[in-house]
Amino acid sequence: MSAIIAGTYNSRDTGGIPLTAGGSTRPGVLYRSDALAGTTDDGIKTLTASPIGTIVDFRTDMEKAGLPNRVGTQRPFTAVELPLLQGAFTSMPSAADVDETAMREIFARIPTLADLYIQMLGSAAGTFAEVARLVARPADDTYGGVLVHCTAGKDRTGVAVALLLDAAGADRDAVIADYALSETNLAGAWADLMLTRLEAWGVPLIPAITDLVTATPPEAIKAAFGWLDERGGSARYLCDGGLSDADLGALRERIAG
């Protein structure tokens, strides 16, 4: 699947995903992407012509430094900054900064993606509930679509989108497949660029690191769903994070119709 916004690698509309009750999710409501810093002129035209009105950015200030989103000036977009530290790959020390023993200790503590997602869910319920509210209650009827992104569009974005789709009644196997698609989309130029950058920083490309940067194994998001199920499910989680029952109903109406 090619990106729908030129200049990105991992952008797509989540419309068309099967629902457990039959039918499919509505297009033009919830979009996902990697960062928009490289959006081309054609990509800006796509954004301008789309129903997207709100862009949620999970990146930290360090990630955004020198890499602002490029969305054009043809019409305004509402930018919502909800930085999430988990998944932000910005502070890995280089081999030149620490000795070999310390480096081994650091790498021994690198979380798996499953662990990372569970840590994220454990600390960011309020953030994810806010994203759900933005989707449920668009400020503009004409431009009611919400685009969610981080740097790669696979971890913070992947968890957020999976959570919202699951709460809205999307078929879980289909949600997992959408999550896993990011690895395919990012393979090649994007992955090569990121791994080359890490090598330049002196970071050894051991499997634990390359997986964090480039992979979206189904087992990782399944583990996140397992954690949610143990606590009452995705909808309960969002409500515990501050989403009202009315907004949950509106979210389901917006995504599932």
TrEMBL record:
**Domain of life of the native organism:** Bacteria
Report whether Hydrolase shows up as a keyword of the record.
yes
Q: Does the keyword Hydrolase apply?
A: yes
- Could you tell me which Pfam families the record lists for this protein? Y_phosphatase3 (PF13350)
Source species of the chain = Actinoplanes subglobosus
Q: What is its EC number?
A: 3.1.3.48
From the Swiss-Prot or TrEMBL record, what is one GO molecular function term?
Answer: protein tyrosine phosphatase activity
What protein is this chain from?
Answer: Tyrosine-protein phosphatase
Top-level enzyme category: hydrolase
Matches recorded under InterPro entries:
Prot-tyrosine_phosphatase-like, Tyr/Ser_Pase_IphP-type, Tyr_Pase_AS, Tyr_Pase_dom
| Residue span(s) of domain Tyrosine specific protein phosphatases | 126-165
Enumerate the UniProt keywords alphabetically: Hydrolase
